Amino acid sequence: MRALLIRELRLALRSGGGAGLGLAFFLIVVILVPFGVGPDSKILAKIAPGTLWIGALLACLLSLDRLFQADSEDGTLDILALSPLPLELLVAVKAFAHWLTTGLPLVIAAPVLAITLSLPGEVYFWLIASLAAGTPALSFIGAAGAAITVGVRRGGLLLSLLVLPLYIPTLIFGAKTATLAAEGGDPMPGLMLVLGLSLFTLALTPFAAAAALRSHLG
Amino acid sequence: MVLRGPNGAGKTTLLRVLAGLIPPQSGKVELRGIALENRDDYQDQITFAGHLDAIKPQLTVAENLRFWADLFDSKTFDQTLQEFRLSEIADRQAHTCSAGQKRRLGLARIAVTARPIWLLDEPTVSLDTETTAQFATLVDRHCAKGGMALIATHIDLALANATELRLEPLSAKARASLPESDPFLTGDWV
What we know:
The complex is a heterodimer.
Chain A: H1 2-13, H2 19-37, H3 41-62, H4 66-73, H5 76-82, H6 87-116, H7 124-148, H8 156-183, H9 188-217
Helix pairs in contact in A: 1-6, 2-3, 2-6, 3-6, 3-7, 3-8, 6-7, 6-9, 7-8, 7-9, 8-9
Chain B: E1 2-4, H1 11-18, E2 30-31, E3 34-35, H2 39-43, E4 46-49, H3 61-71, H4 77-83, H5 99-113, E5 117-121, H6 129-144, E6 148-152, E7 164-166, H7 172-176, H8 183-186
Parallel strand pairs in B: 1-6, 1-7, 4-5, 5-6
Antiparallel strand pairs in B: 2-3
């Protein structure tokens, strides 16, 4: 299991891996927003949580379609299916590695980028907390989607269509947590809901993804 | 056991069914008394090598093999690396290796997983004659130790005590007379 995690991280960080891609996309989107919306710091502060959350969500989606496809194309998936690791655990490890290389850098970069959107100081904690609680859900839901579309050539579009509706609850509660904090409301229920969503997907999606992979192999 | 037959006869399909990667259309699969339905125990006896070598081009040769050794909990990593003459290219990135070297790395994975039943699909493609002969001795040694190997191949490996199984492709007529199994075409789905 550790071997798989190390390999996934190594692959993501080597050339051609997806680790830098999501982060770069996130940076570009968020930096472009002030140019598009204009320099009014009141408006920027108002849309900052939503912008950061949408940016993180799309950045996460960007590297998902290769999650199982690369392994399927070079025959690794066949061998992994025969390995002593259950397929469910394998999916969970891969999704976790995806979060470590895509979700976690976004959580770390978000507060820096929030400065360019003039987010008020007291909201930072809630923004980071909501992203940290919500991005695992993005990776795990995405893993199920990637497993379903693994046999489809250029399956990225289909993957987005499948996964985006499932992302919406996480997006709503995640962005609302930070927005509520900015407006002086109580952000705690929102954060709890995001965390609950993450735990729910963590428990459920590995089974869905493993079932999808089995039917692809068969 | 050597599996022979012209292209399209179903050698690869048979191997994949035996590996539990494709469910059989009819009939039963059982290895050493363990049925295919008991998937985990069944697959724990098997190592499978298909047309693809399952090599990550961004990793070095040693990293590729080390991953499989760790995943399958194997202790023979160093020994295998030497046996397959991979030591001198151990630090090379796999994408710079030749097709034959990649195949050798792919076959090294079989040895490192140390499972009793080997299912090999055209294992000697792009190997030179010397390595092919070496590989044949390896298979012989594995079988002498009580292992089993089912190999689909077009060349003569000169294996000791090998039985041959010949597959012939179904004629178009025989194919047409097969019962239709697609539920959408037979109307079973309603």
